[in-house]
Structures
1.
Amino acid sequence: MDIKLKIWRQKNATTKGRFEDYELSDVSPEMSFLEMLDYLNKQLIEEGKEPVTFEHDCREGICGTCGLYINGRPHGPQQHTTTCELHMRAFKDGDTIVVEPWRSKAFPIIKDLAVDRSAFDKIMQAGGFVNIATGSAPEANSIPINKKISDRAFDASVCIGCGACVAACKNSSAMLFVAAKVSQFALLPQGKVEAADRVQRMVEKMDELGFGFCSNTYACEFDCPKGISVEFIAQMNREFLSAKLCSHKGH
Ligand code: SF4
Ligand code: FES
């Protein structure tokens, strides 16, 4: 298939960017979106031009680095699909595809399509861990956990930290990401010990880093490649409120 591309090119966070047009022929419908970009870069290198910078690592929907805005949607047109899992068969011969980086004050542009998502790491460093002396490894299944609760914790744990929720949100809110991380820990006994401190520290860090507020448009859930539910935002709000109330009462 033949395709036209409009790709955002930008040297760094302080220079002005612009769209550049490219034409590619002989694109196989079986190529992944990232393989198509590799194919473009090979061509650009052969022509002595600068290749397009984009992030990727696992190419299996696990690492969360490959997020791109494709035709106005984070990770492209297919729901529950990361950019690396998206195939060119999702597009038609002759299509024009517009590719942009995530746009959020908290994710400054590094170059072209790559953005600095270390703000997410800073939120995790503020509390996204379990910090208790556990002794030697306990026997598997020695702490019985209700199946419904373990399933729910698992549903939250599948967040890959890609940032599509921030990119989809008109306020660049990171609520879905933080809610998934908070809930994953708060639901399980090991994580409950520090739950009150954790939620306060992570929410404060999120606010400090310049992410916006949630205004309940559900765009984050719709564009999350892992289908994380906004119900976790409600769970985080409950955790946050009870942590605040307890600290107010001096508990
Ligand atoms: S909640 Fe979904 S969209 Fe947001 S970072 Fe996690 S996986 Fe990506
Ligand atoms: S490259 Fe790892 S999730 Fe896409």
2.
Amino acid sequence: MNDRLYKLSRTSPESTDLAQTAQEMASTTRRDFLKTLGTACVAIAIAPVAEKLSVAEAAKTENTPAERDWSKHKWGMAIDVEKCIGCGHCVVACKEENGVPKEPFYFRTWIERYQQFGDETVVDSPNGGYDGFPPETERAERLDKAFFVPKLCNACEHSPCVQVCPVGATFETPDGAVLVDPDYCIGCRYCIQACPYGTRFLNPITGVADKCTLCYHRIHNGQQPACVENCPTGARLFGDLKDQDGPLNQFLREHKIHVLKPHLNTYPKVFYSGIDKEVR
Ligand code: SF4
Ligand code: SF4
């Protein structure tokens, strides 16, 4: 496990790397083999073999730190909806940082706009908020309330995506992120269907499941996730839930906090302040 975590914490998924990875993957017979077999139960039986191969490969190429304590932290994020202005800088920064395809519909994070006209709530997210939001003109005089809600992987403590992955490619790290190991993923899309928050997509370049990693490669380098660093209003706060006196726990103590779809018992580690029941 440590080797796998170390490998993923050092992988910067820039576009060029993705293209290279895609080529490497194209020549990987293991995935072709699994796809040909085509049944989840056979894939489950093969998973332990895949794990041994991947760990061995990682051990060969990395200076694995013997004593890194991956369970020392529990990463999470708070989002202060009252501060979000829907500028989309976070969406742009995320795409740049993580080599997310520029085309619409591929997002690791995106912004939704909620507009209330009397009893009617209208939600839109043109190009995921990448270009910001055009002002409402036609119904402006009827607008009661509007706010922006940034979305991303909720880093669920009980994550449906992890539960359904037939080959162990999607897994939760001891420090609270949920990651996809591209060396394992067979592109079956089970996790994409299982995520109740719609945060996953099949990357058209790599052919594997993709989603927010909390910028795992950055946070293990002492940096903030790209979306947090580029938010001009401080609407996103990244931190360590195990640091009781840290800024994240302080924020959680001082604000009324909601998580998305709490009835599903996924126990998200992305916390929202300033949302109400309209947000789903
Ligand atoms: S939000 Fe979706 S992708 Fe993220 S951990 Fe939860 S189920 Fe998995
Ligand atoms: S950068 Fe900050 S303010 Fe702008 S849309 Fe993203 S979260 Fe909202």
3.
Amino acid sequence: MTRTILVCCGTGCRANGSMDVSLALTAAVAAAAADANVCCVTETGCSGLCELGPLVRIMPDDIMYYRVRPFDAHEIIQKTVLAGEPIERLLFKDSSGNHVLHQADNPFYGHQKKIALRNVGIIDSRSIDEYIAHGGYSALARALEMTSDEIIREVEESGIRGRGGAGFPTGRKWRSAAVLESSPKYVICNGDEGDPGAFMDGSIMDGDPHSVLEGMMIGALAIGAEEGFLYIRDEYIQAVKSMKKAIRAAEKRGLLGESILGTNRKLYFSVVRGGGAFVCGESTALMSSIEGNVGEPRAKYIHSVEKGLWGCPTVINNVETWTNIPFIINAGGKKFAEIGTEGSTGTKVFALVGKVKYTGLVEVPMGITLRKLIFEIGGGIPNNRKFKAVQTGGPSGGCIPASLLDIPVDFDTLKEYGTMMGSGGMIVMDDHSCMVEFARYYVNFLCGESCGKCTPCREGLRHMQSILTNICSGYGREGDIELLEMIGSTMIDCSLCALGSSAPNPVLTTIRYFRDEYEAHIREHRCPAGVCKALTAFSVNHATCKGCMACNAVCPTRAIVRLNGGFPIITKSCDGCGSCRDVCRFNAIEAVKGGRV
Ligand code: SF4
Ligand code: SF4
Ligand code: FES
């Protein structure tokens, strides 16, 4: 039987050496070719479980190997491919210590449902033939035989809402643009993913670029556009390459250009590289940037579906939204609407990161609970630590505490609790995370990213930054919390764009759910999580310390010394970084009140 070996060459696995694994497997296949007609090696996009990469999957047997190294290649070919024997040490081990052979039996994958990621990690993204062999461009062919109204009705029936953040109904947006008589019209793909920790859109563009193009082509047919742009953040070198290559391949096949598949419809797409400004993820700033102007937002009293790019009707959707469209056209809007919840249909892709055992790229039905996502798919919190909070929606979102782990993940519920879906970044925090410092981190980030055009955002963020820095440094004052709340509500009401109006969310949700931590910083000069250096000292609990000296090995300032050849002590050279506490398996290092204040 001819087998295919899928080697994950997404960004995470690439960083862990998957290109070398791919080369070694190719060489091992060539060496074994004399014995049998074995297989081919295919480099794919992100397979999901980045934490345990590089990942290798052997098809059609569906044997999945984790943390594969180049020196494993020969054994994989000889044992698994030729002799059909699994290699235990490369298999996933579940929580009971059992080896898991197939991807579908791994709990990380078992609870997922893949629509947007249907080809990511399965096909060679560089090959249009592979995309077509997996059903690609069949939705475009179908759409070419449909009227604009029929296409839009499917999208409306699907109930899909924009995956970029705001959750606006996609079908409604398309219809508003389709009914306008004016020309030209444009479609745009927003690939300016800039949230810290997010890599959903980059992974889709890198791992399945044709599905994005196909979705955009269908959108263009529906609204009557003949030109489209993919705005991709400059740092996504792989995604830019991948999308450009896909556009060229589609042009060669007559899927783009003067005559789409021999019809009288024409369509041209091009890639625009973003300059690295987070604000350009905001639709009006993004369009301004494409036009060659400074990427600053404008007031949205006229919607961009009416006057968008160069003042023309424009439909802008993000990468994940576009990639769902071919599925909707092929399977029918109704089928898509059967997945998820009534108000949030379909699935959602998340980049699950932070203090969670299995970090990676996941796609789950809308309505799944945070508990299931973090504990069943993500495997829970590493090192037996306690879950503290999860940030959804990146810098524009908010945090959700442990008491709300059972709420469903959908657009409206997250909003109700002060956060938002955002584009899908999900950062998990354990009890070693300080919520005040966490809010300060995001405010710092946004301070650097605010374009400065409107006062509430520009000044509000700076003022918040200074208050939060003072609190974390031990100089917080009574009334600071109330002041933060007041600034936050002014920013929400008065900022020009979504960056400013959502920027206070991390601050307001941490105050809402962790007010006691703010109070401990201000009133007691204490950081309960032991993170704020100015307020924290570390001490060794000699009753639980086992003298293993793991702490000594990680201390960057050599502040840990042995006591009479036995247990360690922390000296005055301690910098307060907390690395020793993180590494101690016996919880023998405790954060106590202290530090420089
Ligand atoms: S790592 Fe923990 S148990 Fe080991 S010596 Fe340091 S404090 Fe003691
Ligand atoms: S907190 Fe950092 S600097 Fe201080 S003892 Fe621990 S590892 Fe060393
Ligand atoms: S990059 Fe390989 S699993 Fe994500």
